[in-house]
Design goal:
The chain is of the alpha+beta class. The protein has helices at 3-7, 10-75, 114-117, 145-195, 211-261, 267-298, 309-326, 346-363, 419-429, and strands at 84-89, 95-97, 108-113, 125-133, 136-143, 305-308, 330-333, 341-344, 369-376, 380-387, 433-438, 443-450. The chain is rod-shaped.
C-alpha cells in the first residue's frame, strides 16, 4: 500500500494532530519539570553550604582564627573539581587558606566559574556563599556542575521519551490508516464487482461492530435489495419474452396457413411473406433476450472446460464468411501467437466471437478488411477482431454494450442492439474483459481471457 496515500489518510492526520497537541503540552511540562528539578537541587545545595558555613562559624567562635584555618585546610579536597571548596580571607582580602586566590565581591550566594577565582587550580561552576566572620571573610562553595549534569540527563531522558512517543504514535497512525484503507479497498473491490454485474457480491463484516462494520451491514442490505430488484426486472423481462413467444408462434402458424391458402402470384402473398419475416425477427429477438437473461442470472459454469480459441475462431470465421463475401470484404484469421487455451463454455465463446465478427461484417462497410487474431502474453490470451470501418462515436463506446444500444450510423442496419450485450454477458461469465476501441485503421473489439 503506497505510503503517500496512507500519510494523506484521515486516521494518520488525526494521529499527527493529536501528537502535535500532546508534544506542545509535553514540551511545556518538560520545561517546567527540568526547571523545578534544577531549583530543588540548587536549594538543597545552598542548604548544605549554609549548614557548613554555620559549622565553620561555630569552630571559629570555639577555636579562634587558627582553629578555623586548620579546619578549612582539612576540609579542602584534592583534584581539579572537588564537591566542596573552602576559602578564608583576612580584612585586606588576602587568602589565608584554600585554593581561592580572589575573594568574591558580594556577601551571600552567587554562582561563579572557579577557574577564575582559583587561577586554574579548581575547575567548574560553583555555588558560593560569602559570609563575614568578624574581620574575616569565609567562602564555602559547592560544585554546581552536578546540577547542570542532572538537567541534561533529564533533558535527554525526556527527549528520548518524546521521540519514542512520536515514533510510536506515527506508527500507530500508519497502522490505523492501513487498516482503514484495507477496509475501504475491500469496499471498493466489492462495489467494482457490483458495477460489473456481480450483484451477489457483499462487503465483509467483522465482529468489532465499528463504523466500518455498521456501514458494511447497511450497504449489504442495500445491495441485497438491489439484487432482488434487478433479478425481478430480469425475470419479468424473461417472462414477458417467454409469454410472447407462444402467441407469436400461433401468429406464425396462422401466417403459414394463410400463405399456403393464397396463390403465390397474388399480391397478398407479398404482404404475407413480409409479415412472416417480421415475426421471424421478433422470434429471434425473444430468443436472444431469453438467452441473455439466462447467462446473466444463472452464472452457470458447469460446461466450462479447456478449449482452443484458435479452433473456435476458425469455426466462427467460416460461419461468417458468406456475409463477408456478400459485402466483398476480406475476412481473415491470423495464425495464433502463443498459447490459445482458455477455460470456458465452447458454445458461448463461439457465440461471442460470431457476434463480434458479424458486427464487423455488418458495420465496417463494403470492401472492408476484417482480421481476427489471437495473441498471448504472460498471464492472459486475447482474441481481437479488427476492421477498417468507420468505428463508433466516442461518446457511445462506454454504453454500446448495453441492451438495445445502437450508434447513430447503425439505425438503418439490421439488428436490435443485443449482439455486444450478449458478448459482454459472456465475457463477464468467463471473467474475461471486453475491450472496444477506435483505432487509426477503424475499429477493434477484443476479448481478454485469463490463462487456463
Amino acid at each position: 500500500m503506497p505510503l503517500a496515500s496512507l500519510i494523506r489518510s484521515e486516521p494518520f492526520r488525526v494521529a499527527v494532530m493529536g501528537l502535535g497537541v500532546f508534544l506542545t503540552f509535553f514540551a511545556f511540562a518538560s520545561w517546567a519539570l527540568i526547571g523545578s528539578v534544577a531549583t530543588t537541587l540548587r536549594e538543597d545545595l545552598e542548604a548544605r553550604i549554609q549548614n557548613e558555613a554555620e559549622l565553620l562559624g561555630r569552630i571559629y567562635r570555639r577555636e579562634g582564627r587558627e582553629g578555623l584555618i586548620d579546619a578549612i585546610r582539612d576540609m579542602n579536597e584534592d583534584g581539579p573539581s572537588p564537591e566542596r571548596s573552602y576559602g578564608l580571607f583576612d580584612e585586606r582580602n588576602l587568602s589565608l587558606t584554600g585554593p581561592m586566590a580572589e575573594r568574591p565581591n558580594i556577601v551571600g550566594f552567587e554562582t561563579r566559574e572557579m577557574s577564575q577565582l582559583s587561577r586554574g587550580l579548581v575547575a567548574g561552576r560553583y555555588v558560593l556563599l560569602s559570609d563575614r566572620v568578624d574581620q574575616l571573610t569565609l567562602v564555602v562553595g559547592g560544585n554546581g556542575d552536578r546540577i547542570e549534569a542532572a538537567k541534561w540527563r533529564l533533558t535527554y531522558a525526556l527527549g528520548a521519551f518524546g521521540l519514542f512517543l512520536t515514533l510510536s504514535t506515527l506508527s500507530l497512525g500508519l497502522w490505523a490508516a492501513q487498516r482503514a484503507q484495507r477496509r475501504l479497498d475491500q469496499m471498493d473491490a466489492v462495489l467494482y464487482d457490483v458495477s460489473k454485474g456481480q450483484l451477489d457480491a457483499r462487503l465483509p463484516v467483522g465482529s468489532k461492530n465499528d463504523q466500518f462494520d455498521r456501514v458494511a451491514r447497511r450497504m449489504n442490505s442495500n445491495l441485497a435489495q438491489l439484487e432482488r430488484l434487478v433479478a425481478s426486472v430480469k425475470t419479468t423481462a424473461s417472462a414477458i419474452a417467454h409469454d410472447l413467444k407462444t402467441p407469436l408462434s400461433h401468429v406464425q402458424i396462422a401466417m403459414h396457413e394463410v400463405a399456403d391458402a393464397v396463390d403465390p402470384q397474388d399480391l397478398a402473398m407479398v404482404k404475407v411473406q413480409a409479415a412472416l419475416e417480421e415475426t421471424d425477427r421478433l422470434n429471434h429477438l425473444f430468443e436472444t433476450i431469453l438467452r441473455l437473461s439466462r447467462i446473466q442470472t444463472t452464472k452457470d459454469r458447469s460446461q466450462f472446460a479447456g478449449v482452443s480459441l484458435q479452433d473456435i475462431a476458425a469455426t466462427a470465421v467460416e460461419f461468417c464468411m458468406p456475409v463477408a463475401e456478400e459485402q466483398r470484404q476480406v475476412l481473415a484469421l491470423m495464425a495464433c501467437q502463443g498459447t490459445d487455451r482458455v477455460e470456458g463454455d465452447r458454445d458461448l465463446i463461439q457465440q461471442a466471437i460470431v457476434n463480434l465478427v458479424q458486427n464487423a461484417c455488418v458495420h465496417a462497410g463494403p470492401e472492408a478488411d476484417i482480421k481476427v487474431s489471437i495473441e498471448a502474453d504472460r498471464d492472459s490470451v486475447t482474441l481481437s477482431v479488427c476492421d477498417t470501418g468507420a468505428g463508433i462515436e466516442t461518446a457511445l463506446l462506454a454504453k454500446i454494450t448495453e441492451p438495445f444500444a445502437r450508434g447513430t450510423a447503425d439505425r438503418n442496419t439490421p439488428g436490435h442492439g443485443l449482439g455486444l450485450a450478449m458478448v459482454a454477458a459472456i465475457a463477464d461469465l468467463h471473467d474475461a474483459e471486453l475491450i472496444l476501441s477506435n483505432t487509426a485503421e477503424g475499429f477493434a473489439a477484443a476479448l481478454k481471457f485469463k490463462f487456463f
